[in-house]
Every structure is written in C-alpha cells, then in structure tokens.
Amino acid sequence: MKYLLALCLMFQIFTSEAVAQQFKYHTVAPGETVSSIARTYNITKEDIYKYNPDAKSGIDASAKLVIPLTSSGETASEEEPVTFVTHKVARKETLFGLSQQYNVEIDEIKRYNKHLYSEELQTGEEIRIPVKATPAAGKNSAVVSSTTKSTNASSSGTSGINPQDTRNTREHVVLPKETKYGIARKYGLTVQELEEMNPKVGVLQPGIMLKVGTNVLDDSVIITDKTFEFYEVKPKENFFRLTQKFGIDKDSLIALNPALEDGVKSGMVLKIPADPDTNTSDLNIDDFAEASEKSVDLKSNISNFETKELVLMLPYNLNRIETDSTNTYKNAILNDRVLRISLDFYSGVLMAVEEAKELGISTNLRVYDTKYDTNNGAREVNNIINTHNFSNVDAVIGPFFQTSTEAAAAKLSAENVPVISPLSNKAMKPYMNLFQSRPTDEMLVDAMLNYLQKNAHNKNVVVIADGKNYEIKSRLGRIFPDAKFVNPSEGYVSESAMDAALAPNRENWVILESDNVGILNSVTSGLNRLARNKNISLLTTNKGNGYDNDNVANEHLARLKFRYPSVDKEFDGNSSKEFIEEYTEKYGVNPNQYAVRGYDLTLDVLLRLATSEDLYDSFERFKGYTEYYENKFHYLPRSGGGFHNDAVYIMRINPDLTLSVENDF
Length: 665
Description:
The chain is an alpha/beta fold. Helix content is about 35%, strand content about 15%.
C-alpha cells in the first residue's frame, strides 16, 4: 500500500495537462507585478489574467493569485479591465444572438463559460458575458464586479455570495473540473460552510466566483481526477476508521492531508486515493493477527474519565406481562426463556457498571425494551432510536436478535454509534459500526481446524463422520491426506472397526463429527475400552447438544482427553471467587453463563472507552486480546465493514472432570 501511495503522489506531481491542469496559489510580494510573476513561472500575463481576471485592475501585496504551472502559450494582451454581465438564457436564444446583443465575440463568451465549448445553451441557465463597457442591460442581466479586494461583492448572478456574511473572506474563481469538496479543502472549510457562504450556488460552473475563507493552502493544487477523490469526515470518525475504510496507513493519510497532524475533526475534507481495488477485508489484518496472542490489560491504561453514555437494548417484552400481581411476574420469568436470559444478562451488566465505578469510570446507563417478536423487532428498534437522542451515545449493547441488531446498526450508522451484538453467533450484514462480540460457528470450526493442523504432526489421525457432516469430512481429508476414515452404519460405530484404524505404538487422534446420540455413545464407549491399551485422544470441531445427553458419559470424555472449540471457558473458582460471592450476595443465586457474559462484555466496552477516545480508537491503540472471567475479546475488521470477535478457546476435559484451556487461539 505504501508503494501504491508513493506512485499516486508521483502521479500528482508530474501529471500532464491532458489529465488535469496543475495550479499553485501565489502570494503577491511587495513590488511584484503581473509581468514579474509571469516571468517567475515562465508563463504569459494572459495565463495569469485567464484565472485572475481582476488582476488586470492591478494587484496588491499579500493578494492570492491562481497560477497555472503550464503555460497555455497565449500571447499577453493589454486589454482594458473586464467586467461581466450575468445573463439568464431565454428560450430560443443563441450564442450568435448574445454576441450581437453584447458586442462581444462568441469565443469570448465560451472562454468564460467553458462548458459551452462542448454543450449547447440551455434555457434558464446563467452565463457570464465579458464586456469592455457596461451595456444597457436587459431584464435578464445583472452586472457583477470581479475584484478579489472587496469582501462586499454583489450577491447577484451565479456568484451566490451572501452579502450578510461578515466573516473574513475572499473570492475564488472556479476552475475547470473543480468540485465543492476540492474548493472546501483548499480553504480549510467544510462543504457545509462553503455552501452556507454561497447559498445561491448549485452546480459549479467554471469561471463563477465563490466566497471562501482566507486560509489558502500554500502548495500546488491538482484538480480532482481519477487518481484522487475527496471525502468529508463524518461525526465520531477517527484515524482507525479512516485507515480501515480507505485502505491506507495513518502516515500516508497525513502525507496527503497535512491538516490531520492536528487530529481528525468532523467535517474535514480529505484527499484520498481513488483506488477501486481497495477492499476493507484485507486492511491491517496482519497487524491484528500478529497481536492476536498478546494479552492487553486495559485497567492499567485508563485515561478517559468522561462519563460514558451506554445504551442497553434487551428483549424484555414487558408489554405482554400483566401488572396486577407479583405472581404474574414470577410466572412470566419462569415460563419465558428469553426474558430469563435478558434479566440474567442485565444483572451482569449492572455488576460491570459497579466495577467500572470503583475504577473511576462513571456510566450513564439507559435501558430499552426491544421486545422480541421476530416480525416487529426491527420496527421497535427503529421506533426507539427515532424517539430518543442517540447523538452522544458511546456504545449500544444489544439487541439480542439478528434482525433487530442489524436494524439498530443501520439506523445509527450515519452517526457512527457502535452497536455490539452480545449473543448472536450468526454472520450479520457488514455495517461499519456493527461489532459481533460472539464468534460465529464457522469461526469455532476454523479455530479447531487450525489447532489440529498445528498439533497433529506424527499423530495417527482417524476421522469418524456421519452423512450430515460430509463437508467437514472433506475438509479434514484435504488437511490430513493420510488420515483413516471410519464410517458409521445405522447410527452406530463398531468397536472392531475403530480398533482396526488405530495404531498400537503411536498417539491416536480420533476426530468425531456427529451430533447423533447413538454414534456418540458407541464411539465414546468403544474408545474408552480401547484406551486401556492404546493412546487415544478424542476431538471435534463442533460440540453439539448430543454431548449433553445422559447416554454420553462425561467420565469417558475425560479419559479420552476430549477437546473442542468454545466461545467461553469454565469459571476458575479461585480467580472468580470474589465475583461469585458479590453476585450471590446481591441476587441470591450463582451467576450463570449469561450473567457472566453480560459482565465480561460490558466491562470490556467500558474499559475500552476509558482508555481511548472512543471504541474505534481503542482497537487502533490496543490490538491484543482482552480476557475476563469466562470470555475473551479480540476484534478484527470484517470484509465490507464492521468488526467481529475471533477469540476462541480450545477446551479440554481433564480426568477430574474439570475444564482447562488447551490453546487460546
């Protein structure tokens, strides 16, 4: 990317006029004249007059002139000062008729209205007509003086200058191919500020005058072309978001936009390479991957103590609960699994907010009920956002369901408010502000395959997979071409078939891919007996619900050193003792996995906000993983936009039936 950027910069400096004319802003020094300036740049006086018509009336020290860096070759002329008539084209008018009316050559009209070289006059458009003497203007015309020394120029015609604007300004003559973005950037303005200063200007036309600021970039300016484009910075965007969006590093972005040395500000107009091949799926992934095994301690880096504005969206569905008795609430909680999960998750969130408060982080927590009707979830989320102010929100945790989460991300994308999906394991639409905190099932499979590939060297690999798992069976076959395959028959695998595939004097890694209880039971029971005389380990890429069946003995899994990928890990009784005691004292029960996830996720978000300018900035500053009681977070940019957490545990069941982390990534 640095090589590409260097090539683009060279193109900017040396591009020929056939692609885009180069210009420079020249500040007139005391004693300089148009003739001396023309000699300095090896151009003619007419070249200067062409882009600075007012210079024919004289130039003052400190005035700014547009200087073409390549001469047009036209000879100098000593014409009288030019004034302009702004003429609104009437129906059936022609250039010939206008030249006769104003006593001016057709070429002179085209000279100051460049589009007329290739386009016909359009009824209703306004054009500038140069005249050496003020004619008797008709009802469609208005005289406009073209001097840059006056800041109170007429607001008539195409200049669009607002006479009520009292800011320190000057005038800018629009050059061919210039855009509002480019002009705003030259003068350190936002596009909105430029439009406010020129309220009557619609589509830019070469030669018209705009009111602009006085802070002119004192360097060469290239008119926008296919090599570069302009971009207006949105609210809450920072270096990290910009580098991800456009595929260039921070140093290169600053090289193109020196004003960024003072930081990113909303409304800034930036110049970026117009590279159609840029793909955010490849942006800085290597940097993140290199740091993926590095743990980050955010608690020791807290620096931002501003109150955090946090929104929690959970599907309580309170509108369906009757409010006449306590028993009604109890029954709703007992009978409604989604409500129970929401309350458990919320309890963990409150624990995290209290923990953050002890660390000096204040939080303003707002909670909204998104309900959970799959048909109305998105509609309810949109209604919440439409009727409440989210402009100052630092992050939104929730909703639970995919459609509702995508609706929230879409609605808040314009303001770059981060939306964190807490529980969904399904891949979502790639909104730039969407963070998937739970790895998808595909990520778990990939993590386990990576673990197998790295650690199965010199092992005798045996694959047992039923018909439903033919895809993973094929992938395992490609990874391990020497693997032996044992096929189940009628929901059962015989012990003799497995024994024939095992090696007597080598470590055997048996990879079991099935969720059929009969297959799981026959394999784990048979391997448990065969393990008395052989070294056997059992592994899977997907620990489904079948392993929780009573017919699949945990003792057998423990003896076989069973390993599998997991989003979370088991509580460590020693390190988690204080948290368990505090939770139990507060709520009267031990925390379950949803309560712990609510705590882990919320504390991670609050710590990231407290160690950086915002959530996006935290991923630029801290690229390693963060880890709490049961969950780990390591976010990577997604293809097309947004981020996902790829932190997966490889878990192992120990002989004493406890769980341990076999491999972090």
